[in-house]
Amino acid sequence: MKEKGLIDSTAPRRFFALLIFLAIGMVARADDRPNILLAIGDDISWQHLGCYGSEFVDTPTFDTLAGKGVLFKNAYCSAPGCSPSRAALLTGKYIWEIEEAGTHAANFPKHLKVYPELLEAEGYFSGFTGKPWGPGKLTERAQNPAGKEYNDFQLKEVPAKGISNKNYAANFEEFLSKRPDGAPFVFWFGAHEAHRSFEQDSGVRNGADLNAVRVPGFLPNTKLTRGDVADYALEIEWFDTQLGLMIEQLRKAGELEKTIVVVTADNGMAFPRAKANNYEYGVHMPLIISWPEGIATVNRQVDDFVSLIDLAPTFLEAAGSTVPREMSGESLLPILKSSKSGQVDASRSFALSGRERHTHAREDNLGYPIRAIHTADFNYIRNLHPERSPTGIEFKDVDGSPSHSLMLGEINSELSQLAYGARPIEQLYDKQTDPYCLNDLSGNPEYKPVLERLKAQLEDELRKGGDPRILGYGDIFDSYPRYSGTRAYPGFNTSSKYNPEYVKRARVQMKALGVENPAYEDRVRQNAAEKGSAPSKK
């Protein structure tokens, strides 16, 4: 026993031993934490992967991952457009909870927490190749929320003109080579495919059989549309092939077993009545999760309703990190760790989606706001400004395509009217009998109890999330700037400025409700100072 007042000569050694022990523990934690590889396609509906039953889209990589992991049959994105959907996925929050980031080609406020940055702060090495969050402007951030960019390598040849020449696999290889020893990684593989435009007839030129192509029921079934869908399928297959090359890299490096691989897309196929719409083919997404070390019971198909905003808390929990309380998404780990197929968690019985501005398609740069709830049997959709055109001036809120041109040439046909015509404030579709959402039941007295129940449930969920559209200051969404091209339409149409008329309206609404948003006011003032006063109306 040591005498009081004497120096303990072993103390420094024990102190350093403790530091070494803690350091070893930290390294072990880093080594034990899973890598995360998110593969997110652009404009792909859930039906168009082999593992979801498609017979004309060849996706061996996706299908293999589904067989060795979990396939989610009812996954939904937060919005049917790339920029807001990706922002929602990164933040784990719905589009109505993330201010400017919830609309297309606007800002991504710095105060919004995103899972790559949270993981990076805890020792993860982050990066992306292809398309990250965007389009939009990072006025407050030093780098894209998806991570550091790795897009230096390019391919000399690709199967079709519409396919990106970015060498995704080589860029991923470079990312892995830069990773510090012992650090887990979080990587975003954002395929540009299958975003428009496609090279017409590229699918047939690359071996597609038009007789095998299945055209969704909201499109006319013609040789032209079958060819357009085949061109789209070719781009999905390219996405599948590129992910396969990345998987092989991980296998060779001995990292595949400890890597969470997720396959999904940001929104639905770029065809009329799909992308930019909250019908099934606009917001119902593919979702496959493979994790050899973390999923014991594989080759499962799960019916639970999940949202892509659930991915952020899933990644954080899997990494042993704290999930921010403000995230609305809920971790999927209990489902992944379960041995069940079908319905695993009975509380996961619905999903939510919404929409604000998609492109500059209306005067004053206004959007077409929508909120929707999706269940096993029904889709209830609320068009919050039904007086506005759902497809905009000159139908510019629909991606250009051969199918789009064909349907515009038959504008009075039933399918074209459904795609481009005015819509009521409420819509209701029976998914079991009407999977393409063609027969609106909102005016059918027999379905009034269903409509009222889903309407009340949707509003309750939106109030919980503080949706400005429901709480009474929805004009704030129409005030946000658009950092992308604008058209010479009537009214305020200047890119990169806050819409002064709707800023004023939002301020009045917020003041009446006692709502304060200092960050919004600061951005408006800064924008006005940088850009000068807004132009008067034409």
Can you put this structure into words, describing what you see?
It is a single chain. The protein is an alpha/beta fold. The protein folds into 2 domains: 25-343, Alkaline Phosphatase, subunit A (3-Layer(aba) Sandwich), CATH 3.40.720; 466-538. Helices cover 33% and strands 13% of the residues. The chain is built from 17 helices and 11 strands. Strands 3-4-1-5-6-2-7 form a 7-stranded mixed beta sheet. Strand 9 (370-374) and strand 10 (378-383) form a beta hairpin. Helix 5 packs parallel to helix 7. The N and C termini lie far apart (91 Å). The model is unreliable at 1-30 and 534-538 (pLDDT under 50).
What order do the helices and strands come in, and which of them pair?
Blueprint: H1 11-32, E1 35-41, H2 60-67, E2 69-76, H3 82-91, H4 115-120, E3 125-130, H5 168-178, E4 185-190, H6 202-205, H7 223-252, E5 259-265, H8 280-283, E6 284-290, E7 300-307, H9 311-318, H10 333-337, E8 351-355, E9 370-374, E10 378-383, H11 402-409, H12 414-420, E11 426-430, H13 448-464, H14 468-471, H15 475-479, H16 500-513, H17 518-531
Parallel strand pairs: 1-4, 1-5, 2-7, 3-4
Antiparallel strand pairs: 2-6, 5-6, 8-9, 9-10, 10-11
Helix pairs in contact: 5-7
